[in-house]
Amino acid sequence: EALGKHGEAAVPHLAAVANCLSYRWEINGTDYGTSVRAAACEALGKHGEAAEPHLGGIAKRLQDEDEDVRKAAYNALKSHIEARGQAVAAAVRATKGVDVWSLARKVLDEIRQGSA
């Protein structure tokens, strides 16, 4: 959240934030890194064009086992699509081995069911 508030001053740190997209901290089989992954998605979702190199990493989080991370990834990609649709589409197409569209539909269905 703090990076989102700092706008352009945060841009040099976006690569470090992107590294957090795959952060895991497991203890006895419980993943405590989910909030870090979700926060990374949220921060990158707020940085427009500067975050475009990291859209593939965000798209991969659509298949995260944690619902909050998937929702954060969806929302981040949605904000980029609304502003810069072509770059997001290219990043999603470049994410080989991930059926992003099926995952996105699944996440949307989960979000709809949760808000019903």
| Rg value | 14 Å
Q: Please count the beta strands (DSSP E, at least 2 residues each).
A: 2
Q: What level of helicity do the residues show?
A: 55-70%
Q: Per the principal axes of the C-alpha atoms, what is the gross shape? A: globular
Report the average pLDDT across residues. Answer: 79
- Please write the string of helix (H) and strand (E) elements: HHEEHHHH
Q: What is the terminal-to-terminal distance?
A: 27 Å
Structural class: mainly alpha
Could you give a quick summary of the protein structure above?
The protein is mainly alpha-helical. The protein contains six helices and two strands.
What does this structure look like?
The two termini are 27 Å apart. Strand 1 (26-27) and strand 2 form a beta hairpin. The protein is globular and about 40 Å long. It has helices spanning 2-5, 14-19, 34-45, 55-60, 67-94, 100-115, and strands at 26-27, 30-31. It is 62% helix and 3% strand. The chain has six helices and two strands; from the N terminus they run H-H-E-E-H-H-H-H. It has a two-stranded antiparallel sheet. With 116 residues, the chain is mainly alpha-helical.
